[in-house]
Design goal:
alpha/beta, Amino acid/polyamine transporter I, 2 domains, 58% helix, disordered N terminus
């Protein structure tokens, strides 16, 4: 069928009564009310039956409150519960719930059609002989086609048909009351007997519970309402309250009437015909009307969920098309076709439990959405109905318990289905055009963690590498970023910073674009790091200012890292910066990565121990963290030192051997006596030429001597592979191991 634009479509909108209250109350007062209420009273007695009604209704009432709270905080579009969840908890979780929601609404069409057929075929004349085995399925198929045709043509027609149905249901209830009064009264049975339900209380509860789960029928019409923010809470809560009151009256009538005995009540079937005045003449029209109304509610709701899924890109786009009358006709016929296919399942009981379980997963999620929204308390969350978060969580817990009581295997299957859908949608990296609660939730969690972290005084035991890496373009220096991530080893925070020299007013837009590109590049490289782009007046002052400002509370950067520059002038600048950041209590790492052999064979890490700068503990800790990465697990850590005499060698060797058991790091040691004809630099070069990574300490050069020191460093590293220079200036210098 042709698609129509929004200007061509003339959509009829509904108010609270016809759009929400009527489909909700008629779905609540449905099949189980007529078929199973007497059975519940006959097995549990009046007292426990009232307990069952109140307990079951409390779960649905809490869920209705949660749905109303979320609905009053947004303009609810097409899709009802799916729309609310996807806009609150995100598109992935919304889709994981929305797809099963569409399926369970569609299967509900089959469920109610079978229920209608079974009650009609109870009148099969004996004179016609034995009923053919296929009769029930054939009649159900005809009913599905009929209600699909009506709903696909006009939602207004389907909803207006519910007015006479409501009259029929009301007439059957009045007939029940009158019949009970004129038939005489008796003392009700108060104690449970479990005559026909030997499985006990929770079995009876699980059978009854689906009777109270129809209140979401009106929410499913959200896209067809004049004012969903007003109509959904009013219509839904009113339907739940009136439904609960009726459910409290019915067992009292059935318990006190003398027209049926407790033994008769305990038998499955439509016991109402024995109690109500005019019997079957008023009861069956009400029963058929209630079932038919529930079927109409499902066939109206399912296509609109499918329409919403298509609009959000979770289903083929053509399913979102509307007819000239504003109906998702194509989605309606596809829903009807699926319901028609479900007829082959064979009967009422085969469909009922799966439908109920899928609806209950929806209740769990609606309550969780409301609870999280309340806990996070974003400024934008201002519902007109305020529900305490613990009340919503209680409703969610109750729904989970119900799922397991009804059918634990179906519950597990439903959870697996929705987790699988969520994982699939997460991998698709869906893009949404709206905010959801998760950003606010993580902000709340982060704030809570930072406040508690602030209360803990610093200690060397809790030190973690929070690295601020000035890397320029991360694509060109991706190995440098990867090295920082290796040092971090998922224990701290890595921030990759790029500086833009210029005027903030002129370069702000460029900086924003650069940051987005950096984030994309880091993600494509599979590196967990934060990107940061800052506009500064000059490199040196910019690095110092950014270093001081970087981080928050207990997550401030404690280590500044640079790559090896192409020009010595920039290395001199880095050394001057090192002096400044040392005064700020932050350590410095300068990494030279050999471009020809970035990390060698990754079989050996040399660490040169010595000097009076307290660099050894940070070097050893970084080497250890590097060795924990899968790429470096085969690497040996070798601690080397240079002695000027054999006696000094023995002293250093004894000191290192005593140190290693204390620090619990698996490392080898080698103390080299410096030959008279070699410099210290030559000893290091000759010994460590074959190492994949070499750690060396940095001293703080005196002001004015940076150029000379930089030339010495450049000469030292020339024949080596990757070399890491470390200056430990943190608050725990000399205490980290």
């Amino acid at each position: 069928m042709p698609a129509h634009t929004s200007t061509e479509v003339s959509v009829v909108k509904f108010g609270t009564f016809l759009g929400v209250f009527t489909p909700s109350i008629l779905t609540i007062l449905g099949l189980i009310m007529y078929l199973r209420f007497g059975w519940v009273v006959g097995n549990l007695g009046l007292a426990l039956t009232l307990v069952v009604v109140l307990l079951a209704s409390s779960i649905t009432f809490i869920t209705a409150l949660s749905a109303s709270a979320v609905a009053t905080n947004m303009r609810v579009g097409v899709g009802g519960e799916y729309y609310m969840i996807s806009r609150s908890l995100g598109l992935e979780l919304g889709g994981a719930i929305g797809i099963p929601l569409f399926l369970c609404r569609t299967l509900s069409i089959t469920f109610y059609s079978f229920g209608l057929v079974e009650s009609i075929l109870a009148f099969w004349p004996v004179a016609w002989g034995e009923m053919p085995a296929y009769t029930g399925q054939l009649c159900a198929a005809v009913i599905i086609i009929g209600i699909t045709a009506v709903s696909g043509r006009s939602a207004a027609m389907a909803l207006k048909l519910q007015i006479p149905i409501m009259v029929a249901v009301g007439a059957s209830l009045i007939a029940l009351v009158i019949g009970a009064i004129i038939g005489g009264l008796q003392a009700p049975e108060m104690s449970p007997t479990y005559r026909t339900a030997p499985q006990g209380f929770w079995y009876v509860f699980a059978v009854f519970f689906p009777a109270v789960t129809g209140f979401t029928a009106g929410i499913g019409m959200s896209g067809d309402l004049k004012d969903p923010r007003r109509s959904i809470p009013r219509g839904t809560l009113l339907a739940v309250i009136i439904g609960t009151l009726i459910y409290l009256v019915i067992p009292i009538i059935l318990g006190f009437t003398a027209r049926v005995s407790p033994e008769e009540l305990a038998q499955p079937g439509i016991i109402w015909t024995k109690v109500a005045v005019l019997g079957a003449w008023l009861v069956f029209p009400g029963l058929w009307g209630a079932i038919l109304s529930s079927a109409f509610g499902s066939v109206l709701g399912a296509p609109r969920v499918l329409q919403a899924l298509a609009s959000d890109g979770l289903a083929p786009g053509f399913l979102a098309r509307l007819s000239k009358s504003g109906q998702p006709t194509l989605a309606t016929w596809i829903s009807g076709a699926i319901a028609l296919g479900a007829v082959v399942l064979g009967g009422l009981n085969a469909v009922a439990q799966f439908v109920t379980i899928l609806f209950l997963t929806l209740y769990v999620t609606v309550n969780i959405a409301a609870a999280i929204e309340k806990l996070v308390d974003d400024p934008s969350y201002r519902p007109t109905i305020n529900v305490p978060w613990f009340v919503s969580l209680l409703g969610s817990l109750g729904a989970v318990v119900m799922m397991f009581l009804i059918n634990p295997w179906a519950c597990v299957a439903a959870v697996i289905l929705e987790i699988s859908l969520y994982s699939f949608l997460r991998r698709r990296a869906l893009r949404k055009q709206w905010g959801d609660v998760w950003a606010g939730l993580w902000v709340a969690v982060a704030r809570f963690a930072l406040i508690n972290l602030r209360a803990h005084s610093g200690n060397p035991r809790n030190w973690r590498p929070h690295i601020l890496l000035f890397a320029g373009d991360p694509v060109k220096r991706i190995n440098l970023v990867r090295l920082a991530a290796w040092f971090n080893q998922n224990r701290g925070v890595v921030t990759v910073c790029q500086l833009v020299v210029g005027d903030l007013k002129e370069r702000r837009h460029d900086a924003e674009l650069l940051q987005k590109d950096m984030e994309k590049d880091l993600e494509e490289a599979g590196l967990v790091a934060f990107a940061d782009v800052d506009v500064v007046e000059s490199f040196e002052s910019g690095v110092i200012n950014v270093t001081q400002a970087n981080g928050i509370a207990g997550l401030r950067s404690n280590t500044v890292m640079f790559g090896w520059p192409r020009r010595l002038e920039r290395l001199e600048s880095q050394l001057r910066i090192m002096r400044a950041v040392c005064n700020a209590g932050k350590s410095t790492v300068i990494a030279r990565i050999n471009r020809d052999h970035p990390f060698g064979r990754r079989d050996r890490i040399d660490l040169w121990w010595g000097g009076q700068q307290n660099n050894g503990d940070l070097m050893l800790l970084l080497a250890y963290l590097l060795s924990l990465n899968p790429e470096w697990r085969e690497a040996r850590i070798v601690i080397r030192a240079i002695a000027r005499s054999e006696e000094e060698r023995r002293e250093q060797e004894a000191g290192l051997k005593a140190l290693l058991p204390e620090i619990r790091i698996n490392a080898e040691t080698q103390i080299i006596v410096k030959p008279q004809n070699q410099t210290v630099a030559e000893v290091i070069q000759n010994t460590s030429q074959g190492a994949a990574v070499v750690f060396l300490g940095l001293m703080e050069p005196e002001p004015g001597t940076e150029a000379e020191y930089a030339r010495g460093l450049a000469s030292l590293v020339e024949p080596l592979n990757t070399t890491i220079f470390v200056r430990n200036a943190g608050e725990f210098a000399g205490q980290l191991i």
